[in-house]
Amino acid sequence: MSERLLxxxxxxxxxxAPILRxxxxxxxxxxxxxNPNIQPVMEYLRRRDALAQVAAKLGVDVLYDDYxxxxxxxxxxxxxxxxxxPCWDERxxxxxETARRLGCDAYSSSLLYSKYQDxxxxxxxxxxxxxxxxxxxxxxxxxxxxxEGVALSKEWGIYRQPYCGCVLSEFDxxxxxxxRPPVVGE
Length: 186
What we know:
- The chain contains eight helices and four strands; from the N terminus they run βαβαβααβαααα.
- It is of the alpha/beta class.
- The chain has a single domain, classed as Rossmann fold.
- Helix 2 links the parallel strand 2 and strand 3.
- The termini are far apart.
């Protein structure tokens, strides 16, 4: 029997390539959607539903954890420049805890698919949570499969989000436009 791995999933498009690679490695994947960082609520719902479409397409079971963005909002607005580390750590802790509770052999995260995340820090946080929760962290650099995941998500018509998830990341995305003068319509 193959080993079972819990994959923390940040969104549908970022889950595609990791799920495919993990299955090719002989692992049975169960997903966990735990992302209290995603705001506003409609964005959370879009991402949750997009993951449900991917999970159905790939035949993967996904656990959908509770959504309460308030603790994340308080923490990230208290220190906006250092907001990513505690956000990642919280989600990896929940993944490790859930993997242990379910009796999974290891856990990982689709955050490792993103070109925009700090892989060194993610790996260190994942391994620290592995030690705390007694379940190994499975590290793999899924960024090499970026183009495949993007192409499949587009081909399948999966919603592709335009920012990391929190309102501060969306603010960062538009910061240059905010410095420009307003555009006057015709």
